[in-house]
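lol forgot to send this yesterday, sorry. C-alpha cells for the thing we talked abt
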C-alpha cells in the first residue's frame, strides 16, 4: 500500500486584538510545544496535535519555513500538484498569512518581513529555478467563488460567471478561464496585487462587519502552473502550486450581517460545511469510505484533486485565542485534526 498522508495541517494562533483586550476577553488557547495546543475554558478542556503550531509571536518567515511550504514549492517543481489553503473563522488571519498585510500594492509596499506565504513561495520558486539550472515556464490563473459562482479575477471587464466542467482526463476544471504567463517575481506580484486596472486581489468581494473590517466574501484560488525543463535532455515536468484563501466561517448573529451580507454568509458557510463533510469522509480508513460528495459545492469540486486525488496539500488553520470565539475555534481545530487522517496516493 503506497498510501501516505499528503494533507499536512498546521495551526496559527493570532494575538488578541485591541478590541478583544479592551472588553476583557480571556485567552483560552495555549501552545504546549511539539505541535500541541491546549484549549481551556468553562466545560471545555482539550488538547489537539498538529504538524506545527505557530503562536502569536511567530513571524511570517517562521510560518513559511516551519509549515513545510518550501518543500511544497520544491515538490511542485518536481511535477506534483500542490495546494496550500488557509481555513478559519473570519478575522482569524487567513489572508494575512497567505498575502501579508492589506494595502501592500499601494505606493508604500509592506515590509519584506511581513510578506505572506504567496510572495515567499514565488521568491523560493525563482531561487530554486536558478540553483537547479532549469528552464521554467510559468503561468497563473486566479479565480474566486462568490455565492456559488466561479469568476475570473484576471479577465478584463466586469467579473462574469464561468462554467465548471468535468472530464476523465482533467477532473473538474473551469472552462474559459484566463491563464497569464509571467517571467519574474515582480510580474506575478503585480498580477496578484495591482490596482490600476482593477485585477487580482483588488477585485475580490470584501465587506466590513462586526468581526472584520475587511472580510473576504468569496473563496479565492490562485494557481501557478510550472513547467520545468533541465538543461540536459531530461523530459520536462509539469506541476502546479495552488493557493486557496477561503472566506471565513462566521455566525450571522455575531457579525450583525443582514441583507446581502447575510446571503453571502450563508453561501460561505454551506460551502465550508460541504468541504468539512468531504474531509470527514476522506479521513475514514480507505476500506470504510463511502461516496465522497465533491459535487455538493463548487469549492469541493475545485479542491477534489487536492484533497482526495493525486495532490499534496498543506492546510493552515487560523484561530483566535479569544474566549468569545471559542465555538468557532473548536470547530476549526476539529476540522484540521480530521484532515490529518486523510490518505491518498500523490
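and heres what i got for the seq, position by position
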Amino acid at each position: 500500500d503506497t498510501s501516505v498522508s499528503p494533507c499536512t495541517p498546521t495551526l496559527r494562533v493570532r494575538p488578541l486584538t485591541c478590541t478583544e483586550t479592551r472588553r476583557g476577553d480571556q485567552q483560552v488557547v495555549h501552545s504546549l510545544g511539539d505541535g500541541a495546543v491546549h484549549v481551556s475554558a468553562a466545560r471545555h478542556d482539550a488538547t489537539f496535535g498538529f504538524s506545527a503550531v505557530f503562536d502569536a509571536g511567530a513571524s511570517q518567515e517562521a510560518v513559511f519555513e516551519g509549515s513545510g511550504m518550501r518543500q511544497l514549492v520544491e515538490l511542485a517543481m518536481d511535477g506534483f500538484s500542490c495546494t496550500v489553503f488557509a481555513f478559519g473563522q473570519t478575522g482569524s488571519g487567513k489572508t494575512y498569512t497567505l498575502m501579508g498585510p492589506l494595502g501592500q500594492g499601494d505606493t508604500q509596499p509592506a515590509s519584506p518581513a511581513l510578506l505572506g506565504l504567496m510572495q515567499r513561495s514565488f521568491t523560493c520558486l525563482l531561487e530554486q529555478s536558478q540553483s537547479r539550472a532549469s528552464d521554467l515556464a510559468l503561468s497563473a490563473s486566479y479565480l474566486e467563488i462568490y455565492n456559488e459562482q466561479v469568476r475570473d479575477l484576471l479577465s478584463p471587464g466586469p467579473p462574469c460567471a464561468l462554467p465548471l466542467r468535468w472530464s476523465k482526463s482533467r477532473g473538474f476544471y473551469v472552462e474559459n478561464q484566463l491563464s497569464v504567463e509571467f517571467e519574474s517575481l515582480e510580474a506575478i506580484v503585480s498580477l496578484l496585487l495591482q490596482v490600476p486596472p482593477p485585477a487580482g486581489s483588488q477585485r475580490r468581494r470584501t465587506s466590513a462587519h462586526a468581526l472584520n473590517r475587511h472580510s473576504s466574501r468569496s473563496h479565492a484560488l490562485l494557481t501557478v502552473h510550472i513547467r520545468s525543463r533541465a538543461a540536459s535532455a531530461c523530459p520536462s515536468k509539469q506541476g502546479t502550486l495552488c493557493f486557496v484563501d477561503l472566506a471565513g466561517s462566521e455566525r450571522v448573529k455575531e457579525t450583525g450581517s443582514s441583507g446581502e451580507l447575510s446571503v453571502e454568509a450563508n453561501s460561505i458557510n454551506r460551502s465550508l460545511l460541504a468541504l468539512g463533510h468531504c474531509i470527514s469522509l476522506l479521513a475514514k480508513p480507505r476500506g470504510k469510505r463511502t461516496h465522497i460528495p465533491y459535487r455538493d459545492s463548487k469549492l469541493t469540486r475545485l479542491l477534489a484533486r487536492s484533497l482526495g486525488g493525486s495532490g499534496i496539500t498543506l492546510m493552515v488553520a487560523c484561530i483566535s485565542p479569544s474566549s468569545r470565539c471559542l465555538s468557532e475555534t473548536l470547530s476549526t481545530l476539529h476540522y484540521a485534526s480530521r484532515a490529518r487522517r486523510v490518505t491518498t496516493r500523490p
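The two ends are 12 Å apart (CA to CA). anyway ping me if u want another try
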